[in-house]
């Protein structure tokens, strides 16, 4: 069964797939061989659950999306003081391959090529004659770190690595310029080789999404449970990605998308909503800034349609489900006959109450819906209690409305406890800005007590219908329940 989140992602991809602007990178010959129509999208939630659509399994080279990872590795290995002494953290406002240094002749930040090459050099020993064997050893350490962030072993695209090495005159010039400034302590050729290798590691959008979720979780990989890097390192990297990750398009990105992010000329984009999720997008046609044109549009829709902007002013709570219980603590009303009451006492566990809390945005609604869908075989009636919910954003509200559709498909029934009419008012406010067609709302009540008679009626109707069907097959008629 396709989830409602998958439905949102498919809708967004359908909107963006007609965007064929831009062109595949051609200054690295091997990158011209990719399919320009490739398009993949993945989301990894804070608990490690992944949603994947399109070409999410297609491998492509990570390219500049590697820069925050190597920067994180350098911060981990050398510490903040030594790394900051070599690389700044200020936006350059320039293209990724510009020779951009500050008044101390440090690269302005680690997200441009100059800063990334220097970050790679910090992982090498400070000697001038480094053989390929030592670069192999350090690259293995880099690969192991990247793989720990992705939750699986990554591999090198040797053809792309050789292609970049054969055509990397500008990057070689940057490396030797930094060497002439006295800021590279190791062999510039070895630093360049290590940088080009890291850029040639192969990833998928699933990998990028898991890497993003690892940083979003303060350095803990949600798929493996491993603490890959320290929370303070993750915080620093996310801060620099926010201001510098999208090069000379960073300002527009922060205002319109509002997520720490990094792009690569291989067509990948990594975006992160701190504390909640990671996003991986792949589409190889690039805009004038060297960012995936379709990927940028996709991220804008994700941010706007799913409410993912990091400055969304709702009070997001990760633990959206306050409690899950049945109705065994409630007595059966006297309105029913003894036979009906006896039956209802036996099936209280077939009703599940989900109490939600906090402000409900996409991440919280996704978590609640996934929990409900995983429990579908355990109940017939679901009651979603939003008495303790303050703000419900449009996507979260539509996901609440989808409960009825989900249960209808399974022969169940969904009810909503909405004492303040939050969902009803949200429906009226956002009637014209749906990203998916309207769904019929579940029955809504002002409290749990007024809901229970309707629950009991539903349970009795279901068993009566089943009994009547059996009697009709046997005898041509009959009912199970009569009055009193």
Automatic annotation (TrEMBL):
Where substrate is bound, by residue? 64, 113, 164, 171, 195, 247, 265
PROSITE patterns in the record? STAS (PS50801)
Q: Which residues form the signal peptide?
A: none
- Domain named STAS: residues: 351-466
Which Gene3D superfamilies does the protein's record reference?
DD-peptidase/beta-lactamase superfamily, STAS domain
**Single annotated GO MF:** glutaminase activity
E.C. code = 3.5.1.2
Keywords, ordered alphabetically: Acetylation, Hydrolase
Q: Which reaction does it catalyse?
A: L-glutamine + H2O = L-glutamate + NH4(+)
For the keyword Amino-acid biosynthesis, the answer is: no
Gene Ontology annotations of biological process type: glutamate biosynthetic process; L-glutamine catabolic process
Q: Which principal EC class is assigned to this enzyme?
A: hydrolase
The protein's matches in NCBIfam families, at most eight in alphabetical order, are given as:
Gln_ase
Q: How does it assemble?
A: Homotetramer.
PANTHER family xref list:
GLUTAMINASE
Record's family? Belongs to the glutaminase family.
**Name of the molecule in the record:** Glutaminase
